[in-house]
Amino acid sequence: MELSEIIPHIEALIFASDKPLTNEEILELINSALAFIEDRASQEQVNAAIEGIGEKYSAEFYAFELRQIGGGWQFLTKKEYHKTVAQLNGDKFLKRLSTAALETLAIIAYKQPITKSEIESIRGVNCDYAVQKLLEKDLVIISGRNEDAVGKPLIYATSKSFMDYFGINSAEDLPKISEVLMEELVHATNVKEAEENMDTSNLEEPELNTGMPTEKNTEEEDKI
Q1: Which CATH code of 3.40.50.300, 1.10.10.10, 3.40.1280.10, 2.60.120.260 fits the domain covering 3-83?
Q2: Which class does domain 92-172 fall in?
Q3: Distance between CA atoms of residues 14 and 21, nearest Å
């Protein structure tokens, strides 16, 4: 089977799927759909086709691109158009999360697997409600128990839905904390430098009208 035959079918599958499709799933679906063709597609062909599709939609005149998230492939809007698309969907999902839930989610994302008591030791407050809300929204999952801790507490990790929503393939794709802190430091430094370098040469203190003659007026009076 030629790549030119496979590519449009793969594009259609990824476009129509409501979840990321893995290379293996795509291969199975392609061969099932084209079962009447004796020359079946191979995994190597599917891999090459996906690479070609990714390259095709990376061109600047496409508003979307092929991205690998949650272990599979999806078409996603490019970041330049997120604000435009947000007018349709907004940030409804995350806006329904409280600040406490977002902070808890960040801790779980960066420290997973982690127990609730460990989350609370970082935040300094009880996290029962926040953790429950994150479980309800399928952003985190219970991944087991800490067999070495007293009482064998539950341990939490981010879910596949979390990766899908944030457009990442694994927890390793999250920004490094050091990079985030450095970005904040650079931003703060730039603001400080801008304030220090502000041109004040044209700013003069207003003269107070005290009724007393100025130096200029005194000179003029002397000429008279």
Answers
A1: 1.10.10.10
A2: mainly alpha
A3: 7
- pTM assigned to the model: 0.56
- Nearest in space to 78 (alpha carbons), one of 62, 54, 97: 62
Under DSSP, the state recorded for 22 is -
Q: 18 with 60: CB under 8 angstroms?
A: no
Going from N- to C-terminal start, the domains of the chain cover 3-83, 92-172
What number of CA atoms fall less than 13 Å from residue 120's CA on the CB side? 11
Rounded percentage of the chain residues whose pLDDT exceeds 90? 39
Q: Residues 30-59: what's their mean pLDDT?
A: 86
Q: Which pLDDT tens digit goes with each residue over 113-152?
A: 999 999 999 999 999 999 999 998 889 999 999 988 888 8
